[in-house]
Amino acid sequence: MLRELVSRHDNLRGRLFDEQGELNRFVNVFLNDEDIRFLQGLDSPVKDGDGVVLVPAIAGGSAVDVGRKGGER
After folding, report:
1. Who is most buried in 31, 39, 50, 59, counting CB within 10 A?
2. Are 45 and 34 in contact (CB under 8 A)?
3. Cα–Cα distance for residue pair 24/34, rounded to 1 Å
């Protein structure tokens, strides 16, 4: 399903797949609430009515100095 998606929307290819054609490690794909990495990966069968969710990994957070009391800056 993802390969079909990028064949229709080529601008997504670099966001979803790496240079070897494998799923980018910063993209999480869930099929019916299951991470496809624990199913059959990109070969996981998808049928009508299945739910597919693409979740980009998000990095960041709040910078807190743990050396100060209460995290004050």
Report:
1. 31
2. no
3. 17
- Tokens 């990109």 belong to 42
Q: What are the residues facing 34 on neighbouring strands?
A: 31
> pLDDT tens for residues 40-49?
999 999 999 9
The tokens describing 62, both together, are 């709040």
46 neighbors 52 (Cβ within 8 angstroms): yes
As a whole number of angstroms, the distance between CA 66 and CA 73 comes to 9
pTM reported for the whole predicted model: 0.71
